[in-house]
Design goal:
Shape: extended
CATH class of one domain: Mainly Beta
Structural class: alpha/beta
Strand order of the largest sheet: 2-4-3-8-1-5
Distance between the termini: 53 Å
Strand content: 25-35%
Largest sheet: 6 strands, mixed
Radius of gyration: 22 Å
Length: 143
Amino acid sequence: MDVDIFTQTPAAAAGELGRLGAVAQSTPSPRVPASEPMRPDYGQAVLATWRQLIDDGSLTIDEPALAGTARPALVRCNAATAERLGLVEGEPATVRTEHGAITLPLALADLPDGVVWLPGNSPGSRVRTQLGVGHGELVGVSR
């Protein structure tokens, strides 16, 4: 970036970082009480969601070749959660809130028990728009 930060050698850079660490460690950590983990009731799960690298974002508008490389939109959960909720891999699963619902095929994944995952902004899955919630909220889940 054409900026000289005056670290001419790796040893000089390590020395600068060492001095920064000593300052950062002298600052007290904030004291925040731990919150209770969510406990989903029967037919519920905790929602995990994030956007896929290639999704329905503005950069894929009028780019069908790029959009065609996107991962399929799926509901994901682990085998124990699927069994508890009566879900079957490959079959439709519905994630719902009072605001709306998203129904997609189910795929088993390495996720914590009691968690269901949806892509944030993929075809058929626009979580915030359709469900009105985000990551960490309790949602209903059914076949």
